[in-house]
Amino acid sequence: MATAGLPTCSTERKVRKMPREYHSLSPEDIERLQNQGCTCDDWAKVLVAEGFDADTVRSTHFCGEVKLGVFEKRVSFFGGLTKPAGISDATIYNCEIGNDVYISRVRNYIANYVVEDGVVIDNIDLLAVEGGSSFGNGTEVAVVNEAGGREIPIYDHLSAHTAYTIAFYRHRPKVIEKLQKMIADYAASVSSTMGLVGKDARIINCGTIKSTRIGPASVIEGVNRLENGSINSCQEDPVYVGPGVYAENFIVCSGSKITDGTIVYDCFVGQGTVLAKHYSAENSVFFANCGGFHGEACAIFAGPYTVTHHKSTLLIAGLFSFLNAGSGTNQSNHMYKLGPVHQGVVERGSKTASDSYMLWPAKVGAFTVVMGRHYRNSDTSDLPFSYLIEHEDESVLVPGVNLRSVGTVRDARKWPKRDRRKNPQRLDHINFKLLSPYTIQKMLNGRDLLDRLKATSGATSDYFTYHSVKIKNSALDRGIRLYELGVEKFLGNCLIKRLENKQFNSTDELREALRPETDMGLGKWVDMAGLLAPEQAVEKVLSDIENGTVESLEQVADSFRLVHENYPVYEWVWAADVLQRRLDKTVDQITADDIVDMTTKWREAVLELDRLFYADAKKEFAETAQTGFGLDGEEQTKHLDFAAVRGTFEDDSFVSEIEKHMSSKTALAEDLISRMARLR
Description:
Structural class: alpha/beta
Number of helices: 13
Radius of gyration: 30 Å
Helix content: 25-40%
Largest sheet: 29 strands, mixed
Shape: elongated
Distance between the termini: 63 Å
């Protein structure tokens, strides 16, 4: 059975015997089977369920202990064809076959498998388990550092956050030791000499499948080779593994798709992930809704929504999440003397342009666009929402400018809509917020950094160097202003939400509403591969693991779930602390006038950013954007062709959203200001 408390996706992980009564074959049944081309080493070891019809089994050799269900229904195939359930042209060794199973054209044999009801196995080479297997559980995946030291032992229910802890908290050896022990125990608990093909799974036109556990409703079609893995499919969200796939030492989670000649070796493939079009992945973990097409991954930690679509794109030895990798994106960890030990961190929401290159070690700030080739080991983590550009072989950073990009807003809105997970029990807890304590703390740091650079700048200084990148003097003021807009918008968002739909008869009531419920949330925040959390909350989880308060994988999963669910509480704790420091007042000293002042600043920041988005969106409809339209006509034809294909600026849905956003936020500000009037 599945470990209690862990997601099961309507299937059980331990192989189980199907609860039905069996009896020995009658002499008449044996004779009929033999007349239909069936053979057996010892017919006494073949048991059948009540209602078994010998006519449904033909040209099959049985050996070892075999149990057969009842084959009564017709099975549907692609194109509308149906065939009667039953077994033909196969060798079956030591198996339990459920009801209404269709097995045909097994060129070698099926050995040591429980095949559940409604399964289709047609035209395959081999399906077998030899000796005990944990079906990929416990496989150590050497992520981020190719030389080792961050290995993640994968298992069926691995979350991005547990994996992040194992890979990046090596300075907490007791935590790592205990998590590794929990996973080793889990791997032992699911180990078996028998494999499983779950209910209604289909295995069609496949090559060799060894020691692979196949969950319910899986579709395994045209694969070349699968070995030592688990396909954790379920009825709610089936897994598809398609033509030409090679996979070894792997775990694939519900809703995922691997196809088109993809090669997977020592990998974890999370829920809703798609790997296709000859993608190659080795020693890598992919979490929810990742996409890998054409390119290559080696030793990467791909947090949620890491996407690469293009040939000649290599992701290697790095941590990524919410990444969009452009064609030809590449990193290098080979400038070494002691092996490929260098690693990189690309924080959430970043993009790489075509032919971008980064020399590891490096750290890229959140929501940064990387363009060109960068040969120095930079760290821009305190300067998020920037452009990192190559200029005359130098790395030049333009701080904050991605805050005004309409593409950044579009990305933040599209991610929740592109969540492919249909399994109601999701392994990864994903916070999609663009502005959060995690990114705002970086903006505050970035603003202070730019202020210091500005204070030390000389009148003749064109560039300043910070962590191996150059920042143009003229970009300082703009970066400071953009970061301040982002901070004002976030703090106002939190304030508006906190006071929404509340009426106050006194200043004391207002202050009580503003007072945080806890101290948890103060200080630094971290991004644990999609889970945004206060560092102190994470430290508490780790301490609970160390001292034994959290002692099982299901409790670890519950701890991270609770941290995620408490995000709104923690966010307000952090925001309230920043607000008090900016006002130089405690909550008990805040007045209605302060609320009005903060709300006014919020409205101005929101409207200014929206106007920047509006102007940025307008560039998409500029004259230069229409180049190549109206091929065989004059200027008017170009405009008409462009409008027919791309639409007009005035009718664009995103432009309309910006306009509505400006109106709605203005109304929210006016509402809160009016509610403060009675307290002034």
